[in-house]
């Protein structure tokens, strides 16, 4: 039962929306002419058929519930049917006025073809203006995008130029550092040669001094062996003098 009531409410909401849409279309029919008017009438007739189908479903749901609650639902269905009948009458009047208007235009020799009427020309002009505005908007957007791309490309080129200058400066710095390292290497090699020369000179001096000392020692030793020292002459023994007392 609750499911049936909920389904009835869904159908009722659908009918309410459909009736509002039908009323709007009937009101719009009065301001249209030609093919657009006929098209709008056909749409309203299709909506009325759909609304009639919804009312039939509402009636079935109202009959499927308990009698005490079904009476209230039947009253709602009756009101909706009356509303739908009124919409049908309004649509008939609108269709009749449209037919009489087409007949009047036919008598005046204006014809009923919408594409040849002034309204059609006006719509075509409006559509052409709208397409022109859209084209202008796309062109403006393309110009804006082109300007942004140009600005972005200019920025990239400036960044590349700055990076090139940085690389050239770094290259010059590396060349200067390489020259400094080469000079330092040359100085270190010269100092190393001087140190080695000083070492060889000191070793030579030391060897010369050692050789000189050894030569002096050898000469002294050789001289003492070839020329021995003379011995002291022999002296006869003399007794000590005697002392006499006074």
Radius of gyration: 66 Å
Portion of residues in beta strands equals: under 5%
The counted number of beta strands is 0
**Fraction of residues in helices?**
over 70%
Mean pLDDT across every amino acid position: 79
Give the class from helix and strand content and strand pairing: mainly alpha
Order of helices and strands: HHHH
Q: What coarse outline follows from CA principal-axis ratios? A: rod-shaped
Q: Ends: how far apart?
A: 187 Å
Helix count from the secondary structure assignment: 4
Low-confidence stretches: 103-116
Largest sheet, strands/sense/barrel: none
Structural overview:
This protein is mainly α and 246 residues long. The chain is 85% helix and 0% strand. It has four helices and no strands. The chain has helices spanning 2-29, 34-64, 67-107, 118-226. Helix 1 packs antiparallel against helix 2, helix 1 (2-29) packs parallel to helix 3 (67-107) and helix 2 (34-64) runs antiparallel to helix 3 (67-107). The longest helix has 109 residues, at 118-226. The protein is rod-shaped, with a radius of gyration of 66 Å. Residues 103-116 have low confidence and may be disordered.
